[in-house]
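Field log, afternoon session.

UNIT: design team B
ACTIVITY: writing a sequence onto a fixed backbone
BACKBONE:
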């Protein structure tokens, strides 16, 4: 019997470090462990990572050499910024004349507030001529006397002319301080925003470098030879060397790990992922099989850090109900954890004897309308989890499951106070909690133009059952709890793909320049360990900002998933029909590849053009692509250039807004190449030709073409 190698994901949280082992071939969860996060050990969090790895290998009966992939996610960078535990940054501004005025203003970055009453420690010095080594050394001496532990060099237009920033770093190198140039962090214009991003990155650099070295040494000592990767805030992973250069990419990576797990394990194509803990729910979007990412706000200011678009609501499994005048007036934001109370539903029937309702003020300044029960066993909080269990909404094997009879007994005093029955009281409690979540999910559906009828709600985290099932019932949307929801974050770390994003400002970008950005992104993920044959690159060109963006993803090994289940034709048809909201008899197969089947139907509308919605379903029966109105055509690699030129030409629109090529996606082998981010027909066709690459001339290619209105 062949024993597959394993992928290990480790999520370092504020309290616990969770680790999972996943079969590298089947992606089946093989084991999971939890250890306290070792903040105060002499080796820091590295000690807890190795302890978790050791326990995991013991539990699964595997050896260190069986580890094919090891990645960890950490909140260390986020916590450092929140707590103000950062290094003093020495910022060297460069410029003469008007440029000097702009860079001298950067000294105001020292006013950025890290925590209440604590500002970013910054020392500023100016250099007129970056080629003057003596002047640079004097500036470095100035900032080091003021306590600088790390250096940043920044110059106007350093993106186009990086020689000045590089010269400053070269002259400062003998001082032995960690250093970075602003153009190395981002290649986008905007001196203040670019420098601010670089300065925040530098502030956490020394601490993160020390942690990286300890983790690297500890893992090597443990005998693991697999590449060590680190979770990024955009849902991918990066090499340890890349983390040493840009530790800021780990900020906000906690929610990214969860949605990465949902994306890879649950195979979401279109929907929302709700990761619910005890106190809050993080909500993120998956659109057309990809996580939604945007530039993040750091320390209250816009940055060039591309991070998951995650929105947090103060409602979780432990959120307490608030009552007044015999009515439920709200849920949260205080939770049983904050109040220091146990959940009533996890008590025993004996402990709940003689229960009576009371209201409390969990913290000074809070309203005194938070409901608790005082009973024979003490005081207990009435929570979202209690209500979900009372209504039987918590699955049998769920982390938050309790005896339904106990949960109903816990809700009985609340029901009496509301003059209703237990089921109605529980429903009102969940209504009040999920109402806040629904407001955010509705906004995100609008913002990303998701089709509400087909957007699935997937819950993760230990408190998933307290929010997602009830929200699904209220909205009428499909909803489910992710498998192994309590460890969805480390699963996401274990399954995440190597990711890199390259952004360039290129006015009037031509196809050669766009292809060059694409090639740079592809090369970057390969350099970090991704298998070259499996890299996918999505290119977007924004004509309004002249930004060319290429996002490359790839696995560290080619994964041929040896799943026990493959959906048959009937299962795939039913999945497509359900997504299309159509009778299976009205759904047709439009094209097939070895990995995908393309289904379509026809929607006739009075006084309006007929629509042809399309769904692409993979071999597992998962809808991988939604197209509300598309043309589908099959060709071959050899004939594709001519066929695509015709299709793009026929579907390109011309108007006051300029030329708009159609949204084009190509089904090639096991991949869906998404070229929909390019509006100019010629670069679009050039990218399509690059995707065809060295494939066999007779290999089938399916084009899915959506005309833009």
């Amino acid at each position: 019997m062949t024993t597959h190698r394993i992928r290990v994901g480790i999520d370092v949280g504020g309290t616990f470090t969770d680790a999972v082992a996943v079969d590298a071939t089947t992606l089946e969860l093989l084991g999971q462990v939890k250890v306290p996060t070792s903040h105060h050990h002499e080796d820091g969090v590295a000690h807890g990572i190795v302890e978790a790895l050791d326990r995991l290998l013991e539990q699964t009966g595997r050896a260190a050499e069986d580890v094919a992939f090891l990645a960890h996610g950490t909140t260390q960078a986020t916590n450092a910024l929140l707590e103000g535990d950062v290094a003093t940054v020495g910022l060297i501004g460069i410029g003469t004349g008007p440029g000097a005025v702009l860079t001298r203003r950067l000294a105001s970055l020292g006013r950025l507030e890290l925590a209440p009453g604590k500002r970013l420690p910054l020392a500023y010095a100016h250099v007129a001529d970056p080629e003057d080594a003596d002047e640079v050394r004097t500036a470095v001496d100035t900032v080091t006397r003021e306590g600088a532990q790390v250096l940043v060099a920044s110059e106007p237009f350093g993106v186009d002319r990086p020689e000045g920033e590089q010269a400053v770093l070269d002259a400062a190198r003998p001082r032995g301080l960690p250093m970075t140039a602003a153009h190395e962090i981002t290649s986008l214009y905007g001196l203040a925003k670019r420098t601010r991003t670089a300065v925040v990155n530098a502030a956490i650099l020394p601490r993160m470098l020390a942690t990286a070295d300890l983790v690297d040494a500890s893992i090597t000592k443990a005998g693991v030879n697999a590449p060590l990767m680190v979770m990024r805030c955009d849902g991918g992973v990066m090499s340890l060397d890349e983390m040493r250069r840009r530790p800021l990419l780990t900020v906000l990576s906690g929610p990214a790990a969860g949605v990465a797990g949902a994306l890879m394990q649950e195979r979401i194509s279109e929907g929302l992922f709700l990761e619910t803990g005890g106190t809050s729910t993080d909500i993120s979007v998956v659109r057309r099989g990809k996580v939604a990412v945007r530039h993040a706000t750091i320390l209250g200011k816009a940055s060039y850090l591309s991070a998951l678009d995650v929105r947090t609501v103060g409602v979780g499994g432990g959120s307490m109900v608030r009552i007044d005048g015999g009515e439920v007036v709200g849920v949260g934001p205080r939770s049983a954890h904050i109040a220091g109370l146990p959940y009533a539903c996890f008590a025993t029937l004996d402990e709940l004897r003689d229960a009576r309702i009371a209201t409390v003020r969990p913290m000074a300044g809070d309203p005194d309308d938070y409901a608790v029960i005082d009973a024979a066993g003490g005081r207990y909080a009435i929570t979202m989890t209690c209500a979900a269990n009372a209504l039987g909404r918590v699955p049998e094997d769920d982390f938050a499951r309790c005896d339904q009879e106990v949960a109903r007994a816990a809700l009985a005093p609340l029901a009496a106070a509301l003059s209703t029955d237990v089921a109605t009281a529980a429903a009102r409690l969940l209504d009040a909690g999920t109402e806040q979540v629904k407001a955010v999910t509705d906004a995100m559906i609008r913002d990303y133009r998701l089709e509400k009828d087909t957007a699935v709600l997937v819950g993760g985290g230990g408190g998933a059952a307290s929010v997602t099932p009830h929200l699904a019932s209220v909205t009428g949307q499909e909803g489910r709890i992710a498998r192994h929801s309590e460890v969805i974050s480390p699963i996401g770390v274990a399954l995440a793909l190597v990711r890199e994003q390259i952004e360039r400002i290129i006015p009037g970008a031509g196809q050669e320049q766009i292809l060059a950005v694409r090639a740079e992104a592809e090369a970057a993920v390969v350099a970090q360990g991704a298998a070259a044959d499996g890299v996918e690159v999505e290119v977007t060109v924004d004509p309004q900002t002249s930004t060319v963006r290429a996002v490359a993803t790839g696995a560290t090994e080619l994964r041929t998933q040896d799943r026990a289940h493959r959906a048959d034709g009937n299962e795939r048809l039913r999945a497509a029909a359900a997504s299309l909201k159509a009778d299976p008899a009205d759904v047709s197969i439009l094209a097939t590849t070895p990995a995908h089947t393309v289904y379509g139907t026809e929607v006739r509308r009075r006084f309006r053009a007929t629509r042809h919605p399309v769904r692409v379903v993979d071999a597992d029966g998962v809808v991988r692509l939604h197209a509300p109105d598309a043309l589908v055509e099959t060709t071959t690699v050899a004939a594709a250039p001519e066929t695509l030129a015709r299709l793009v030409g026929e579907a390109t629109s011309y108007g006051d807004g300029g030329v708009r090529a159609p949204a084009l996606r190509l089904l090639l082998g096991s991949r869906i190449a998404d070229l929909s981010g390019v509006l100019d027909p010629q670069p679009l066709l050039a990218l399509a030709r690059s995707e065809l690459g060295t494939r066999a001339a007779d290999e089938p290619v399916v084009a899915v073409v959506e005309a833009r209105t």
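LOG NOTE: The mean pLDDT is 88.
NEXT ACTIVITY: expression trials, pending approval
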